[in-house]
């Protein structure tokens, strides 16, 4: 779980220093299946209202990718009681802010208001769920918005298509093989009825969790939640399809050309288990050992000592069904990228052979303690964690206990996870290169 630059910067976690405190919460279900989590924190007059739907890019069809991300935008268009274009005006005029984000596994919407506007936040999220306006005008408008986002953040961004290049080689059956933003021709081809059907299937109370976190009174919050959300009808049960990938047993070689880059990059990628597993958390720790700052193993070897790399980083990209472990490096000058691959392999083999030192182990535990606490250092972070632990992990109390899992991981487990998942015959080696100039 490392903060890295370039195409993966958005996946970073910022470290801090503090001590974990128990986060108290209450949870219950409405008759329509909406799960509700309440967390009181009176330290500041702020309240967060958020809804996480268990729908992401993996719930799309291969010829209709990008739907979940599209709905992240579309559901701000307006509702029966919120005119088109008024959503953000209502939020800002009430002293609030709001946003949304989508992954392969879920979609998350949230508002942050002064605590005296809790009712407004709950009303707005119920409006989004109960009767949004989904029409051709909104679809056409947001189609252009998404296209512009893709142009700016991916197509015209150096190294912007790394994740796409990796995913399409790592997965053959699972929908993780496509990107969250999807393909624009799929959105262009989709009819209005398809968008309406997607909403009716996934954006239902029994596929969602509502979190209220911050400065509020529980009895009043429950009253408003019942008033605004009980009217929403329960949807049909959302059955998640299961996909299984055959193990990678032979090194995969692939390449990708990018007109926006001048320096080539090499990526090694390994398929890893679900983020819900203990081993996924062990791999998080391995990422820190390999690339957690300038004192990390890969940085010291390839950047400082051998001066072969401009930059190197490792990331355990954990997801609900599978994970992808990525290591990337940028060469110095004319350094062959194979030298970087060999350097990565040698450091992994060292992890597979020798236990990390006690000093390195204690430093690692301190890093994860800081990261865990920092992620829940304000009500926005707490609200997101509560929703995630419920929706993707099925255990809300992980907000208090997951750090104990990290603390209990041993040096032997770190060695064994590296031996199990990070072998040369289990990886993709991707050459991400500048676009070659064609000659006639």
From TrEMBL:
Residues 36-180 form the Peptidase M16 N-terminal domain. Keywords: Hydrolase, Metalloprotease, Protease, Signal, Zinc. Residues 192-367 form the Peptidase M16 C-terminal domain. InterPro entries: Metalloenz_LuxS/M16, Pept_M16_N, Peptidase_M16, Peptidase_M16_C. SUPFAM superfamilies: LuxS/MPP-like metallohydrolase (SSF63411). GO terms for molecular function: metal ion binding; metallopeptidase activity. Residues 1-20 form the signal peptide. GO terms for biological process: proteolysis. Belongs to the peptidase M16 family. This is Predicted Zn-dependent peptidase. It comes from Moheibacter sediminis.
């Amino acid at each position: 779980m490392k903060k890295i630059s370039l195409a993966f910067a958005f996946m970073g976690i910022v470290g801090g220093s503090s001590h974990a405190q128990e986060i108290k919460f209450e949870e219950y279900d409405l008759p329509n299946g909406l799960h509700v989590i309440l967390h009181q924190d009176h330290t500041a007059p702020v309240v967060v209202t958020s809804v996480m739907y268990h729908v992401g890019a993996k719930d799309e069809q291969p010829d209709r990718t990008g739907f979940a991300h599209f709905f992240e935008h579309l559901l701000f268009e307006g509702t029966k009681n919120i005119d088109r274009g008024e959503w953000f005006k209502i939020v800002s005029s009430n002293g609030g802010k709001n946003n949304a984000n989508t992954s392969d596994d879920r979609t998350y919407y949230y508002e942050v208001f002064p605590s005296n506007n809790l009712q407004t936040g709950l009303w707005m999220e119920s409006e989004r769920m109960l009767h949004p306006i989904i029409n051709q005008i909104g679809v056409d408008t947001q189609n252009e918005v998404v296209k512009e986002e893709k142009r700016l953040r991916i197509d015209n961004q150096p190294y912007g298509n790394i994740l796409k290049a990796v995913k399409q080689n790592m997965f053959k059956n699972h929908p993780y093989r496509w990107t969250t933003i999807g393909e624009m021709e799929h959105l262009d081809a989709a009819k209005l009825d398809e968008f309406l059907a997607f909403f009716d299937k996934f954006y239902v109370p029994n596929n969602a969790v509502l979190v209220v976190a911050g400065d509020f009174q529980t009895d009043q919050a429950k009253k408003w939640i019942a008033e605004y959300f009980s009217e929403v009808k329960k949807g049909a049960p959302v059955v998640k399809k299961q996909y299984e990938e055959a193990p990678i047993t032979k090194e995969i070689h692939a390449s990708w050309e990018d007109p926006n880059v001048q320096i080539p990059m090499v990526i090694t990628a390994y398929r890893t288990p679900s983020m819900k597993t203990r081993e996924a958390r062990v791999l998080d720790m391995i990422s820190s050992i390999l690339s957690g700052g300038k004192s990390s193993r890969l940085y010291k070897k390839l950047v400082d000592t051998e001066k072969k790399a401009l930059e190197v980083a490792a990331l355990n990209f954990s997801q609900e069904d599978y994970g992808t472990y990525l290591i990337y490096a940028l060469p110095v000058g004319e350094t062959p990228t194979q030298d970087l691959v060999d350097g990565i392999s040698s450091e992994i083999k060292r992890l597979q052979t020798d236990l990390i030192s006690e000093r390195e182990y204690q430093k690692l535990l301190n890093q994860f303690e800081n990261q865990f606490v920092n992620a829940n250092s304000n009500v926005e972070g707490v609200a997101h964690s509560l929703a995630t632990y419920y929706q993707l992990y099925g255990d809300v109390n992980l907000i208090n206990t997951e750090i104990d899992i990290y603390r209990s991981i041993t040096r032997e487990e770190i060695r064994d996870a590296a031996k199990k998942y990070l072998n040369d015959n289990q990886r993709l080696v991707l050459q991400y290169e500048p676009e070659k100039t064609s000659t006639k």
